[in-house]
From TrEMBL:
Residues 38-50 have a biased composition (Low complexity). It comes from Plantactinospora mayteni. Keywords: Signal. It comes from the Bacteria. Residues 1-18 form the signal peptide. The keyword Signal applies. This is Lipoprotein. Residues 21-72 are annotated as: Disordered.
């Protein structure tokens, strides 16, 4: 799933550079660090497998894989997101291409399909969040659903840093 989210963010950045470079002045791609998730508090703090705490008073972050039905939920979330992410990236590209050639109807049709892909992706993450028995996995999937729900079929709506931070947390819970 990491590749899918990173692909969506990278593709959005590439489409921005190729199709609308003048429209995104001031928008920057994520840096190499991308905002590590180590400082993100987890609801699993204090559970077995938790890593030692940081400086005095810092929350303990559980970096162990998701428990309960985590493997199944991770696999289903990855499968569900795959199609939606690919459709979103493809349709966003088509929308930008159509807009670049003055094809307003084509751009609008592609945008509608991209919006539908986002809705499908967000719904799938909410469904998997509801199924998850691991509270940390449930929380990350719900946050992904919220972030995807805030996105629109525009390059500017993709918050690469936020998606990357969420993905890092998900990767810790859903190791390959």
């Amino acid at each position: 799933m990491r590749r899918l989210l990173v692909t969506a963010a990278i593709a959005a950045a590439l489409f921005a550079a190729a199709g609308c470079s003048g429209e995104r002045d001031g928008a920057a791609a994520p840096g190499p660090s991308g905002g590590p998730s180590a400082g993100v508090p987890s609801s699993g703090a204090g559970t077995p497998g938790a890593s030692p705490g940081g400086p005095a008073g810092a929350p303990v972050v559980d970096t162990s894989p998701a428990g309960g039905n985590g493997k199944e939920v991770c696999a289903d979330a990855t499968k569900a997101a795959s199609s939606s992410v690919q459709t979103f990236v493809s349709e966003l590209g088509k929308s930008l291409q159509a807009a670049g050639t003055g094809d307003t109807a084509g751009a609008q049709a592609a945008q509608r399909k991209a919006e539908a892909a986002l809705q499908t992706w967000g719904n799938a993450m909410r469904e998997q969040s509801a199924r998850a028995t691991d509270e940390r996995l449930k929380g990350v999937l719900a946050e992904i659903a919220t972030e995807v729900g805030a996105m629109k079929a525009t390059v500017e709506s993709v918050d690469e840093n936020k998606l990357q931070q969420l993905q890092q947390r998900l990767d810790a819970l859903c190791p390959s």
